[in-house]
Amino acid sequence: MVIGAGQAGLSAAFHLQRRGLKPWEDYVVLDANPGPGGAWQHRWRTLTLGKTHAVASLPEFPFDNQDPTRPASEVVSEYYGAYEREKNLPVRHDAEVRAVTHEDGVFTVELADGRTLQARSIINATGTWTNPNWPSYPGRFDGPQVHTNGFIGPEQFAGQRVLVVGGGASATQFIVQLRAAGVDTLWSTRSEPDWRTPSADWGVQVERQVNERTRAGLPPKSVVGATGLMLTPVMQAAIDSGALVSRGEIDFLGPRSVHFQDGSAEPIDAILWATGFRHAHDHLRPLHLHTQAGGILIAEDSVSAVELPGMYFVGYGASASTLGATRAGRKAAVAASKYLAAVPA
User: Whole-prediction pTM value?
Assistant: First the structure.
């Protein structure tokens, strides 16, 4: 059973079928969303395909010749939907998983509608979008507050002075977009922004760093903690204009103000929290896989749960990118197929 029908889940489903598992009979994909698209279907409409990080192709289904001016939410949702149909993948949408338990070699999956299903192996591909990280600071702010997954577009903040919090790519993109729409912004980060120009082996280095943490049972770092911020011409121009200059970390919040740790304060009307996400694993808590450090011990293959045979993770750690997720989907399908062949039905 695959939980999640984003890039990682669809890749895993394809490779399970490629290895001889029959759709609906031998395996199924459960997805909480109402339709295809994974987390992409919830992205803000002003995020066009040309402004996103590269979207990797799913296995044997090229993602090319796409209009970069269209909303990424539309393009990717259409692409995933076409993939589900073309490859005859057994995806059941509107199937939210509430809890997974394990006893005597069998996983029991409880759905939000009260139904239960059973499986001998689970590939978890639930991503992070439904688990936003909301930091806590002293004080009380009375104005509107929006997280990345609630951002619609600059019109939400028309005529307001907005504090954008977060040191990742989303924060920088929001600031550039808001400034272009005439919205006044301030930027707060916990540490100095880490601007980088990728080297030839940049991706390999990032993947190695992330794998070291998951193999030690540590929670993966934030994306920017592993990758840094890409210094593109657009971002350099925003730095030069003063838009992308961090005021440092927040000390406390007032009803309509922010106070920084350097002692300065500014009036603000709204806060946009671009503070990242944590992996959506609440449904897996009954399995007791999390270490005291908060991570999950992952084997050398980067997908297998060390503490529970038959449990696999894709889109976790180094496979959180679309390219990494596609590769991890194949690894998990291969590992799950071998496991199923080795244990009695």
Answer: 0.88
C-beta atoms surrounding 18 within 10 Å: 15
* Sheet strands (E) in the chain: 2-3, 29-30, 91-92, 97-103, 106-111, 116-119, 122-124, 145-147, 161-165, 184-188, 195-196, 229-230, 250-254, 257-260, 265-267, 270-273, 311-313
Distance, CA of 302 to CA of 299 (rounded, Å): 6
**8-state DSSP, 219:** P
8 burial type by CB count under 10 A (0-12 exposed, 13-18 middle, 19+ buried): buried
What are residue 249's DSSP bridge partners?
none
Give me the sheet containing 106-111, strands edge to edge.
97-103, 106-111, 116-119
Residue 202: what pLDDT? 52
In DSSP terms, 106 is beta-bridged to 103
What gap in Å lies between CA 280 and CA 127, rounded to an integer? 6
- The set of residues, in sequence order, having a beta carbon less than 8 Å from that of 117 and lying 6+ positions away, is 1, 28, 30, 108, 109, 111
Residues of the chain with pLDDT under 50: 224
Using a 10 angstrom Cβ sphere, with 0-12 exposed, 13-18 middle and 19 or more buried, the burial of residue 29 is buried
| CATH code matching the domain that covers 145-273, chosen among 3.30.70.890, 3.50.50.60, 3.40.50.200, 3.30.1540.10 | 3.50.50.60
Q: Which two tokens stand for residue 9?
A: 């889940």
> For the structural domain made of 2-130+278-342, what CATH number should be given?
3.50.50.60
For residues 266 and 188, is the Cβ–Cβ distance under 8 A?
Answer: no
Determine the 3-state secondary structure of 52 from DSSP. Answer: coil
Give pLDDT, residue 46: 87
Domains in the chain: boundaries: 2-130+278-342, 145-273
Tokens representing 337 are 């197929």
What gap in Å lies between CA 320 and CA 280, rounded to an integer? 12
Rounded Cα–Cα distance for residues 199 and 181 (Å): 33
| The pair of three-digit structure tokens given for residue 109, joined into one six-digit string | 């999956």
pLDDT of residue 223: 52
CA 50 from chain centre, in angstroms, equals 19
Structure tokens belonging to residue 152: 């619609």
Cα first-last separation, the chain: 14
